[in-house]
Amino acid sequence: MKKLILTIFLLFTTTNLFAITEDTKVIIDLINKQFEQVDKRFEQVDKRFEDMQKQMDKRFEQVDKRFEDAHELSMTIIYTIAGLFGFIIWDRRTMINSAKKETIKELEPELVKKADKNILNEIIAIIEEMAKKDKEVENILLKHHLKLS
């Protein structure tokens, strides 16, 4: 690029292509200095771009780390909720089973009494029927002071 611009510049400024005068040397030196300055600026710009690239890489790494942390936190929350539901189900089962057992213990004597009364009533009804048909059964009931209805 430098050479092309330099040759174009030389073609327009000099009439003799092979004759380099003192003025052209000064001009060439000035052009070379300007190109060096432009090269330095490009190097600075390249360095800035590299610095920006490094900063962006660091930021992306930070964002990735934040996503990993958020993922770990969300998984912890999900596992905690699942454990809580498991505990709730287990607790409900044990509570219901113990409530059933307690209810049965409390109601069992009453149920036995009612069942005994029903059975006794049925037995009495059967014996009374037998007494109506059989005089011997009727005499036995009267002997023990049991009334027939």
How would you sum up this structure in a few lines?
The chain is mainly α and 149 residues long. The chain contains 3 helices and no strands.
Label the structural class. Answer: mainly alpha
Beta-strand fraction estimate? under 5%
Measured on Cα atoms, how large is the radius of gyration?
Answer: 56 Å
Report how far apart the termini are.
135 Å
Could you characterize what this model shows?
The protein contains three helices and no strands. With 149 residues, it is mainly alpha-helical. It has one domain (2-108). The mean pLDDT is 82.
Outline the secondary-structure elements.
Layout: H1 2-13, H2 22-133, H3 135-143
Helix pairs in contact: 1-2, 2-3
List keywords for this structure.
149 residues, mainly alpha, rod-shaped, 3 helices
